[in-house]
């Protein structure tokens, strides 16, 4: 991971204070740059994000927002830096340029035509429409599997171990997908917590990973948006070191997601569907 100006970080001259003494220094900050997502030829959304994994971010956004529900609905993903149109294989690790573009051709799921104008989603929130988003009709996560408490308490450290940009800048959120043994399958970072989740969901979708026995570990608050993204992706367990919101808990209860919050050290709280934890 680069420690100076580069695709993920930008270096700044700063002034530090320590024990009332001031001195000049340098520090790095995570980059925040725009990405345009076009769906079937129409601009769908402008995302402010940490550059990199842009195809995964685009695919995950479509999944978590209900535009698609299965891998075979995504016909083509084209990054603006690609050569002529490339297959949607999800192998996107190179950072992207400022004002970048991802074009997707997809067969839309039912209700996927609902956006008539493009939105700008900034890094502070997911930019969701509350009245539309809490319509949970048809969203239901299947029962099972079982996750042991010992597995769950080990997941935060595995997430942090994969957050390279955070280690250098302290300015990104992390999301990771893990299995019932606690193995972390993928960790993604972004300046927006919703983007970090979408990058993980994009990896899962394009790689053909079965969500039925997976958990999602987050570094930030468990708002209803985060829970709803997981529910739409059919992920049964969502964990965070932070707190859930009341609506996040209600969405988890209604959709069948097990919600774990305040996961710190050897302790955590289970706010919904505890039967998945250690046999319940």
Task: Describe the protein.
This protein is an alpha/beta fold and 280 residues long. It has seven helices and 13 strands. About 4% of the residues have low confidence. The protein has a six-stranded mixed sheet with strand order 9-8-10-11-12-13, with helices on both faces. A five-stranded mixed sheet has the order 5-6-3-4-7, covered by helices on one side. The chain folds into two domains: 100 residues, Ubiquitin-like (UB roll), CATH 3.10.20.10; 128 residues, Cytidine Deaminase, domain 2. α5 packs parallel to α6. It starts with 8 loop residues before the first strand and ends in an 8-residue tail after the last strand.
Write the layout of secondary structure elements.
Blueprint: E1 9-18, E2 21-30, E3 33-39, E4 42-49, H1 54-64, E5 74-79, E6 100-106, E7 119-121, H2 130-133, H3 149-161, H4 164-169, E8 173-179, E9 184-190, H5 193-207, E10 214-218, H6 224-232, E11 237-240, H7 246-255, E12 258-264, E13 267-272
Helix pairs in contact: 1-5, 5-6, 6-7
């Amino acid at each position: 991971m680069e420690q100076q100006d580069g695709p993920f970080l930008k270096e700044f001259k700063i002034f530090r204070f320590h024990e009332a003494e001031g001195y000049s220094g340098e520090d790095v900050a995570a980059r925040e740059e725009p990405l345009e997502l076009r769906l079937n030829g129409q601009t769908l959304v402008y995302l402010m994000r940490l550059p990199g994994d842009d195809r995964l971010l685009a695919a995950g956004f479509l999944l978590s927002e209900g535009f698609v529900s299965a891998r075979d609905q995504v016909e083509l993903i084209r990054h603006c830096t690609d050569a002529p149109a490339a297959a949607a294989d999800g192998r996107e690790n190179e950072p992207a340029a400022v004002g970048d573009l991802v074009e997707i051709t997809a067969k839309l799921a039912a209700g996927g035509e609902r956006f008539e104008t493009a939105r700008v989603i900034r890094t502070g929130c997911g930019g969701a429409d509350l009245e539309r988003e809490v319509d949970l009709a048809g969203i239901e996560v299947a029962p099972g599997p079982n996750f042991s408490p010992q597995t769950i308490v080990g997941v935060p450290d595995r997430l942090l171990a994969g957050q390279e940009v955070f280690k250098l800048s302290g300015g990104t959120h992390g999301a990771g997908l893990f299995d019932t043994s606690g193995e972390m399958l993928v960790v993604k970072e972004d300046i927006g917590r919703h983007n970090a989740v979408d990058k993980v969901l994009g990896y899962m979708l394009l790689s053909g990973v079965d969500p039925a026995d997976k958990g999602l570990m987050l570094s930030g608050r468990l708002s209803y948006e985060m829970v709803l993204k997981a529910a739409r992706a059919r992920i049964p367990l969502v964990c965070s070191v932070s707190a859930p919101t009341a609506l996040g808990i209600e969405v988890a209860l209604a959709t069948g997601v097990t919600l774990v919050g305040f996961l710190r050290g050897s302790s955590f709280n289970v706010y919904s569907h505890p039967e998945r934890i250690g046999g319940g």
